Fold this protein.
Amino acid sequence: MPAAARIAGDDTPSGAAQSLGAAAVGFKGRIRAVRVRTGDHGLSAAELERRLIELGFVEGARVAVLHQGLFGRDPIAVRVNETTVALRRREAAAILVEPDGG
Amino acid sequence: MSEIALPTRVALVGNPNSGKTALFNALTGSRQKVANYPGVTVERKEGVVVTPAGLAVRLIDLPGTYSLRARSLDEIVTRDMVLGKLAGEDAPRLLVCVADSTNLRLALRLVLELKRVGRPMILALNMFDIARHRGFDIDLDRLSIELGIPVVSSVAVRRGGTRDLLARIDEVISERGLPQGLVATEGTWSEPNAAELRAAQREADRILDAAVRMPGRPDSITRRIDSIVLHPVLGLVILMAILFLMFQAVFAWAQAPMDLIKSGFDGLGAWAGILLPQGWLLSFVRDGVISGLGSVLVFLPQILTLFFFILLLEDFGYMARAAFLMDRIMGGAGLHGRAFIPLLSSFACAIPGIMATRVIASRRGRLVTILVAPLMTCSARIPVYTLIIAAFVPARTVLGWFNLQGLVMFGLYAAGIAGALGMSWVFNRLLWRRDPSDPFMLELPDYKRPVLKNLALGLLQRGQIFLHRAGTTIFAMMVVIWFLCSVPPAPADATLLAINYSLAARIGQAMEPVLRPVGFNWQIDVALVPGMAAREVAVAALGTVYAIEGAGDKSDELGRTLTAHWSLATALALLAWYVFAPQCAATLGVVRRETNSWKWTLFLFSYMLALAYLAAFVTYHTAVWLGAG
């Protein structure tokens, strides 16, 4: 798949983008890109990317990190538009986010 | 008479947490049955609905899914049923896509995907009342035009809340002028790639913007509850408190019905003794059939109590939170967050626990959970534990206020949990070293008030499934074990009880050289054979071997006999044995069914046996070394 298609919807001006996997509780922003690097997820990069999209992690979606676990601050509970999803930071690292007002 | 037409089949599809099952319950009431799809261990729920026009419709509740791109067993069934590819099943005439009105974004994407299947479809906006209450403004007509299918609102939990949906179903089936989108077309579904999924989600977002006005902020009740129950520290404390209360209830509430079932079966056995002449037939009916069934059915109250809590918490929306809280803790041992409920159920009985692993999508995650679930201390171990502890462990207070007997009991539970976590860790390292573990991704639904009707139906189904299992697999095992314990019959001049002359005794005696190093005498070995039926049967068997009449009721007397015959080291070794031993034929039967593999069943049996032997060996020799031999 060409890189351009992969980051479709990425029409926001480039700002201070960061990985959702590193975001602290209280973080609010929008998804700029979903890009899964191969390896270490127990499934292929393409499969993980599709699963994230099916749970609502698409470019432009509003996200907020609501909660995190006690050990290693993992997993995290993320509000994606109207849905709340729990996932591990390792997988959330594939989601590039831009803070509100950033 | 005209030909009897087969009822039309309608399938309910939808995201998890869309209230699909509640809608199914509202439509079918108690006219539903749960079975398995042939060849796979996915529950098949079907019910009959009679529409206002008087048509009988067969309604199928398909497992929840976000996409037709199936991953778990459940989702494969949904996909194949929708596509009409499921062996032995006709394609449904109509799809009813159920969506949570307060969470339409992902549902609309699924609708767009389902449309490509080319089957007539209706979208039911469920929980419409909650959406309206929370300030959602949903334009049904606009939604219908945008999607090109009929859209109706529904409220599963209110009387009359399914009227519109039923009327629509009627229209479609009676083929009175099929509206747009209700004519079956050539299906063009193929697995979407990431770009197609993105495009579909963008289209869904556009439709949502056009037809739905949403309140600015999310559900405040859910947010407030979550700020407490998902708190990193407080959340764990609350979870532990809930579990503690649950187990208290399982043991406290279930005791009376358990006693009732036990005395019922005892009475039945006595009655058989009066009706039938002495001989093998009486032995078969009383000791094989009646006591065999009784020894399994006695766990029904505990299983139902546990499932009552699990269903209640699941309906409320808490179970996903529990998985969130436990994910990292269990993940350290290589277990999936979703393994939490199956392992929890295994404290009552491994059978429902193993069946509950179906929700785990990855084969590896599911297999590891199945392999370690029997290590959780199920309630069949309790009679064995209490007998031996009461006989051998003095009831004194240690370290200030701990009861020594209670401490030993706690230690046995802890050993089971540690064993399960440890073995999961080992399996993940040894068997699947190459591939890293499956990702944990789970929707945390908004909290909802549990509905009594759904709870009752869910509980009824759990009970039915267990009884069905008890009536087939477990019963067959019981008969085999009865046979081993009764054949050949005792000679006429027998001085000992019949079991001492049976095949079971020969097996026990043959095992003696193997089990002597762990401190077991031949009487224990003999009792282990009927103990394969269910662990607690070993208690009655010990009574039989030591020739104590009615040992089940006189456990004090049995305890005294045991202290006279066993050393403390032997007793402790037997306890250690029972923590790990695969002493339950019914569990093995269920593992065989759920893994669909004799290889894994044999693996489970072997590793648990090895672990039990090792634990008993170490315990026995440590105890002897400490002077308890």
